[in-house]
Amino acid sequence: AALAENVSDYGLIADAYSIGCTIKILLTGVPADEKELDFISAQSNILLNTLSAIFSCGKNGGRKKRYKFLDETPKPARALILKLMKPMYVDRLSVPLARDELWIKGGIGPDDPVVSLPKGDIPAGNDDPIKCLECASKM
Question: Distance (Å, rounded) from C-alpha 67 to C-alpha 36?
Fold first, then answer.
């Protein structure tokens, strides 16, 4: 019973927030729970970068990380992230509905074909009941 009390409010809409966080991290390099300006400023500290270069002794440390502000990402991607990361779950875009966003399905420009994603029998709304996929129920 204790486990049910801890996870009773968890649902698919929480996954939407996690997906928004993941996309934000992939596009910006900034952790979702960090303030962009503070994080990027801390990463571009001249003293720390100089010390790091000195103590690396010329070892090839790979490519330099480039952090971006969310405003520097493509507008459709930014719109999707903001919709998925709404603080109130009732305002948040669900994962099935996110599939219809321009950044996911395509069609933004002439070289960006529209992708037809398969539609499952999963709920699209925040308070819809969770249904198993037909293929999963046949196993």
Answer: 9
Cβ-contact 17, 85 below 8 angstroms: yes
Decide if pLDDT at 2 tops 50.
no
Give the tens place of pLDDT for each residue, 13-57.
668 889 999 999 999 999 988 999 898 888 877 676 676 666 666
Helix (H), strand (E), coil (C) string for the chain:
CHHHHHHCCCCHHHHHHHHHHHHHHHHHCCCCCCCHHHHHHHHCCHHHHHHHHHHCCCCCCCCCCCCCCHHHCCHHHHHHHHHHCCCCHHHCCCHHHHCCCHHHHCCCCCCCCCCCCCCCCCCCCCCCCCCCCHHHHCC
Average pLDDT, integer, range 125-139: 61
If 0-12 CB within 10 Å is exposed, 13-18 middle and 19+ buried, where does residue 32 land?
middle
Return phi, psi of residue 103, to 5°.
-65, -25
Does 105 score more than 90 pLDDT? no
Whether residue 103 contacts residue 74, with contact meaning beta carbons closer than 8 Å, is answered with yes
Is 17 within 8 Å of 92 (Cβ atoms)?
A: yes
